[in-house]
Amino acid sequence: MPKVIIDMHEIEVPEGSTILQAARQLGASYAPPAMCYYTKLEGSGGKCRTCLVKVTQNSAKDTKGTPKLVASCRTVVADGMVVENFISEEVVSARKDVVELLLINHPLDCPVCDQAGECDLQNLAFAHGEEITAYEEPRRQYPVQDIGPLIKLHMNRCILCYRCVYVADQLTDQRQHGVLGRGDAAEIGTYIKKAIQNDFSGNMIDVCPVGALTDKTFRFKSRVWFTKPMNAHRDCKMCSGKVVLWLKGSEVLRVTGRKDAFGESLEFICNGCRFESKALEQWTVEGPATVDVRSVISQNHYDAQSRPAWETHALLD
Amino acid sequence: MHPLSSRSRVVVNKTMTFWERLYLPAIVGGLWITFRHFFYKKVTIRYPEIKRIFSPVYRGLHVLKRDDLGAERCTACGLCAVACPAEAITIDAAERKPGEEGLYREEKYAAKYEINMLRCIFCGLCEEACPKQAVYLTDRIVPSSFERQDFIWGKEKLVEPVEPEKRVDVSIRHYFQKEA
């Protein structure tokens, strides 16, 4: 099992894991951000470049480093590898530029966007980006599209991470959408306005790191930080039935899959659970879902559950 | 016992002197104080006729602004409501229909925007949070009322009129926001 040093922390990881996976084993605060890599989707990663890291030593035998920064989601670790992530100024400044490039065509319509508050791009820009941009030209514009009766596509917001394409390829039996065009003209589309009808197509919404694919049944219903996330389950023939209900009072506004600390779905859920089971009686509620205390979703929730242990203990001691 | 402050005084049940028992000198003394105040500067003003000059940073009644073309600026993003420490703001969003572009500036708008003026502490955090420069605190004051219901201000009272001459001037707030 190779041993790697990431940001001066040594960790032993299974053979064949990538730097990103190794860093994630250290913990969420050590892992580089990733916008396109998704553990459960084969072939994802290597597109957004936000996970760039500096390799200062290739392996125990090869003490040279790589001349350029590498994408940590696509680079396999070797024994004795030394990686610099947040401690390297080069990486931090490169990431700043990557954020600026990702935001070049992003409309920044967060006040309108339903994803705001749980958006990976928003978090990324807040944590790793800068407030200014050098870009002055007009941004590319696409009309808002309905892809199917349940999903809304805002192509303006898309960062072309290909996650939704991989979901359609690997999760459903027949892919009905993909990326059309190349370069600056590339866009997600169904070619001819075709409805996406797959029992697992709704997972596109969950994997989308931005607000490009949003739930039409939740469209403009509420901001996420006014809703209460609750873990719940039900008997479902199609999927595991383990979901998060986003409640306002006793009304189920939205159903999503459960996510881990890296914002990735733990289990993909079916459209029956996601779109058609919006009555609280259909679910067995387990309890409040854990939300990162830094997230805007835990704003104004003064209960002890939303406070991290270190915060309350520091006050008591 | 050790006194808690230097202002404590031990109560003594002493009998009044003859001069004190007359009471009249004390009454005259009180009247003299009252009379003296006739010639002092008045601390009150006759409110509806005379209005006090407000400080330029005074935070009073809110206004929901329209843009230059008369469309509502608010896009129901909910940042004012989440920033509000008193939780006085309630918002319901709705989607703009085709043909309503002149009414609402963005594709989403506030179908309901309520501020409970009894809850509001006029801290101005909503104004600071607003990304669309839609909500401002003005130098107007909330009118008094006997009914609680009258203090829940909806959109019909908060949104400024379309007519340019009836718009609420917030340029001074804008000036101070830019300075900050």
Topology:
The complex is a heterodimer of chains A (317) and B (180).
Chain A: E1 3-6, E2 9-12, H1 19-26, E3 52-57, E4 70-71, E5 81-84, H2 89-102, H3 120-128, E6 145-147, E7 151-153, H4 163-171, E8 178-180, E9 187-189, H5 203-207, E10 213-215, E11 228-233, E12 242-248, E13 251-257, H6 271-275, E14 284-288, H7 309-316
Parallel strand pairs in A: 1-5
Antiparallel strand pairs in A: 1-2, 3-4, 3-5, 6-7, 7-10, 8-9, 11-12, 11-14, 12-13
Helix pairs in contact in A: 2-3
Chain B: H1 18-21, H2 24-36, E1 62-64, H3 79-83, E2 89-95, E3 108-116, H4 125-129, E4 135-137, E5 152-153, H5 155-158, H6 171-179
Antiparallel strand pairs in B: 1-4, 2-3, 3-5
CATH class of the domain at 62-179 in chain B: Alpha Beta
- What is the molecular shape of chain A? globular
The end-to-end span of chain B amounts to 54 Å
Instruction: Please tally the helical runs of chain B, counting DSSP H or I stretches of 4 or more residues.
Output: 6
**Structural class estimated from helices and strands of chain A:** alpha+beta
Straight-line N-to-C gap of chain A: 41 Å
Structural class by helix and strand composition of chain B: alpha+beta
Query: Which blocks of ≥5 consecutive residues of chain B have pLDDT under 50?
Result: none
Question: What is the domain total for the residues of chain A?
Answer: 3
Q: Which CATH top level class of the largest domain in chain A fits? A: Alpha Beta
Radius of gyration of chain A: 20 Å
Give me the side-by-side strand order of the main sheet of chain A.
2-1-5-3-4
Which features does this protein show?
A: 317 residues, alpha+beta, Ubiquitin-like (UB roll), Alpha-Beta Plaits, 3 domains, 5-stranded mixed β-sheet, 4-stranded antiparallel β-sheet, 7 helices, 14 strands, B: 180 residues, two-stranded antiparallel sheet, 22% helix, elongated
